[in-house]
């Protein structure tokens, strides 16, 4: 069974090894590999570090013995036809923030033929849709305790000559210390309220004419001030209710759409072929982020977010062209749309931030 290097896998290893869940040196000023990974991946797959700050960090780290001395030790990004294709010697902390997996090496499929063959094989083996092989031809998992730079940093952090941040500040405090501090603060707050309550009750017996209810409420707040936040229905939740859709049952998980009853919704990976009878998952997670509705009449829709112009194209039965559909709302695509599968001529997916965007060619209805 292939390792799925997600947060659950990472946290399980951390607990087993008696260390903090995430690397305590995961900052640009504490670790050269974290800095170099963030710098290179920022230019290739995200937001880059500000130029002045990048120059400061590069100059500073090059003066230390922790800076890579050979090409094999360097974090590197290989480009093919102007697009990032391979990432090596990457900090797993940065890789997770960018790609959702704790890995030190990633390589994309050479082309759509290779990825298609791989997807067919993975589907035939019923491989979890959280598996990185749905997106990457090769992925090498790594826990931060296996990083060679971490070994040096952890050793030096224990010594009196360390120039790194104080390990007492960087590392997570022992569990017993956290519990002692919690109870110290809790009892301090508890006894403060007991004292105040005693003073108020004593005053009631001495000066009954005062409005002690108002005094009490001014100190502790009135019941009217403790109001549950009003629920605002998320657009997708509202759409499901309007369509009287239910979530898949656990017994229906990972079944093809054609084998599922009408009036349900589930989730698929963004690269699933909507015309190919994809299997639905009960809940989103990992790379399973695209919502699919099977309406009461049996028509299948994919649901996502678009900009105003794309929403108008979807609303117009006669419109065609290409739209960008996102699996999550963001400032440039805040409008939820439901797109019938018969209107989809073709789909291509690509990375966007920590998720995906689908370039969909529309057909007139």
Topology (SSEs and partners):
Elements: H1 7-16, H2 32-45, H3 51-62, E1 76-80, E2 83-88, H4 92-99, E3 103-108, H5 112-124, E4 136-141, H6 148-157, H7 167-170, H8 175-206, H9 212-220, H10 235-242, E5 246-247, E6 255-256, E7 264-268, E8 279-280, E9 290-294, E10 300-306, H11 308-315, E11 321-326, E12 335-340, E13 344-352, E14 355-362
Parallel strand pairs: 5-7
Antiparallel strand pairs: 1-2, 2-3, 3-4, 6-8, 7-9, 9-10, 10-12, 11-14, 13-14
**Separation of the first and last Cα atoms:** 44 Å
Mean pLDDT: 81
Specify the structural class. alpha+beta
Regions with little confidence, pLDDT below 50 for 5+ residues = 160-178, 221-233
Major β-sheet annotation: 5 strands, mixed
Strand order of the largest sheet: 5-7-9-10-12
Count of helical stretches: 11
- Secondary-structure element order, as H and E? HHHEEHEHEHHHHHEEEEEEHEEEE
- Rg, rounded, reads 27 Å
Shape: globular
Strand content: 15-25%
User: Total strand count, please?
Assistant: 14
Number of domains: 3
Share of residues in helices: 25-40%
